[in-house]
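Incident review: delayed structure delivery

Summary: a single-chain prediction request sat in the queue longer than the usual turnaround. Root cause was a stuck worker, restarted by the on-call engineer. No data loss occurred. The affected request and its eventual output are reproduced below so the record is complete for anyone auditing the incident later.

Affected input:
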Amino acid sequence: MPSDHLYPDGFVESLLGLLGEKGVRQGEAVLALDPGAHPQNLRARLMARPSSAAEVARVLELCREARVGVVPQGGRTGLAGGAVTREGQLIVSLDRMNHIQRIDPPARTAVVEAGVTLQRLQEALRPHGLVPGIDLGARGSATIGGMVSTNAGGIDAFRYGTMRERVLGLEVALADGRLLEQLSRVRKDNAGLALRQLFIGAEGTLGIVTRVALALVPDPGAQQALLILTDGLGAAVRVLRAVEATPRLALAAAELMSGNHFTVTARALGLAQLAATAPAAFAVLLVVSGADGQSSLEALLAEASERGELIDGPVLANAPQIARTGPSIASGPAASGTMCPCRSMRSPAISRRSASASAGTIPASISMWSVTSPTATST
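Output delivered after worker restart:
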């Protein structure tokens, strides 16, 4: 149980009255959960689990009256500390608000509650030949509400933009207990102020997102995912631009990693084959699609190799498969997901390395960033 002195008299009882036993977790029941990316995410030890937007609004109104701080949480996959809590605060988890309310294939839109995970939405859209236009390594636990609140980017941002470009409308519970509903599903909506934009990326500071209307895109179909090693930034950029200029290829995603970043992550994942590759200045993760993608990629990379811009040729981006089959180009409808083992483990890997290293031994260039395409589209 949370310490009684941490909350105003009657606060926990009022919370239980609003949400019932199923809607409140306390003490050890909170600490038994996975804290996610930061060990202090569950320090508050008191969690509200509303099942509707109206309940979220009533919880916020109760907290405002009792002067209790609120920390909204989704899948707790964020790396910036936005879900960190302290004693005396209330965690508001939207895990019970996990319904996909509407999928409209002709309009290419969907309306979902904030607790729906990205992976669940992807699976629901697959039979309709659609995708959300955003993908993350943490797709199995990252929630749509959390992704909106952090303006998540992910591996598809290169082509489709960040979460801000995917959101058509929002429903938000405000701190005073009111509900703001701007759930327009119209792409060309120029009526009045786009208040939804204030809440995208606001980390829950202005209100808690409860429902989201999303713009969808057609499933690109078969894709090829690969990782290449280059001897410099210039060579990496030239390979990316060559892919963009190839008529039969569509560049869906691209990321650059510094060579030391790549090595640290591969070692942390236990991928001996990747960790033992020749030293490279930069590693490049690519996802492409196209009717003749495999042969076009092979020809393009052969030319880059002849120019001396590649080190050891292309390497499969699917880490587990490397151990079984050796380096190659990954392909198939789920190829974009093969980037994620190397990509999503970078923060834990760097954290472990930092904890055991002396100051100054982690190069500043270890960070990863998205490449901006001049042909990137938004909707």
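Verification: Confidence is low (pLDDT under 50) at residues 316-379.
Action items: add queue-age alerting; document worker restart procedure.
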